[in-house]
Design brief:
Helices cover about 35% and strands about 25% of the residues. The chain is of the alpha/beta class and about 280 residues long. The protein has a six-stranded mixed sheet with strand order 5-4-6-7-10-9, with helices on both faces. Strands 1-2-3-8 form a four-stranded antiparallel sheet, with no helix packed on it. A hairpin with a 4-residue loop joins strand 2 and strand 3.
């Protein structure tokens, strides 16, 4: 943990954010200028209980509310884009490890397209949903410590990782030579983040422990000799995150306003490259 403490040194105040999903508690989000990322403080001792909610949609396949339905529509389109990305790599064996696989939808699509699938998910509830789709997930990556993969994916997972430095080293050890690590994370420098400020849904405190910029991803992974090969936008995220953020800010859904903010965010990102969420394709040397 001593190495991790460097991320919590000389922090600058940035925002106070509320947990809108589970507890209603307030947390400080502070800036680490050296790494150009934000950290959530304090980290709750019993962090696991902050995932125990029907509102935490990535651990369910819920289609109850309007926002749930939008999420499922976006997820279906995103699955197509994710598959297209991994299929673009020139790989013979096609082994893939999906970390934080949720209810297993991405791995199911991969399996249907001739990938050898492996996955992890800490939530027992989500693993049960995955098992109903014949997707078997392990609880954590230590199960695979003797194995190496062509591709490792983390779709909105890295922001949840507590021991960041150690975890990144583990990721490198699991990659084959010239293997790809795909990291998707929210971008706190996007227009929608700046517009909604403390109401921005992708802060999602205290579950999101780190909040990354492009600079921070470059620096963190270069420290273990992993290169960011390219950066890609997740344009649908701007709309979904704005939909949630608008509800947090005003107490009610406003699809038209949310769509407008999401549209503006994507439009401005054409010039700045600061999309609401970004995918980093990272190559092992």
């Amino acid at each position: 943990m001593k190495e991790e403490n460097r991320f919590y040194q000389n922090l600058k105040p940035f925002l106070s954010c509320k947990d809108f999903t589970v507890s209603g508690e307030t947390y400080e989000v502070k800036l680490n200028k050296e790494y150009d990322f934000l950290v959530t403080t304090p980290i709750p001792f019993n962090l696991e209980r902050y995932y125990e909610s029907e509102n935490y949609i990535s651990h369910t396949d819920s289609k109850k509310s309007f926002i749930d339905k939008v999420y499922q529509i976006v997820k279906k389109r995103a699955l197509h884009n994710k598959l297209k990305l991994i299929n673009s790599f020139q790989i013979d064996e096609k082994s893939i490890l999906d970390i934080g696989a949720g209810t297993g939808n991405f791995l199911k699509v991969c399996s249907e397209n001739n990938w050898k699938i492996f996955g992890t998910e800490p939530s027992q509830k989500a693993r049960n949903f995955a098992q109903e789709k014949n997707i078997i997930l392990e609880e954590n990556i230590s199960f695979y410590e003797e194995k190496k993969f062509d591709v490792i994916t983390m779709w909105h997972v890295l922001e949840h990782v507590r021991n960041l430095s150690e975890y990144i080293k583990q990721l490198k050890s699991l990659l084959k030579e010239n293997g790809r690590l795909i990291i998707a994370v929210p971008n706190f420098k996007s227009y929608d983040a700046k517009h909604y400020k403390q109401f921005w849904a992708a802060f999602d405190v205290p579950r999101h422990l780190f909040h990354f910029s492009q600079e921070s991803i470059q620096k963190l992974f270069s420290e273990v000799n992993l290169d960011v090969e390219k950066t890609l936008p997740m344009k649908y995220d701007a709309y979904y995150v704005s939909l949630l953020s608008e509800k947090y800010k005003t107490g009610k859904s406003n699809p038209m306003k949310s769509f407008w903010i999401g549209f503006q965010s994507n439009l401005k990102a054409k010039q700045t490259s600061e999309y609401s969420s970004l995918i980093y394709v990272i190559k092992n040397k």
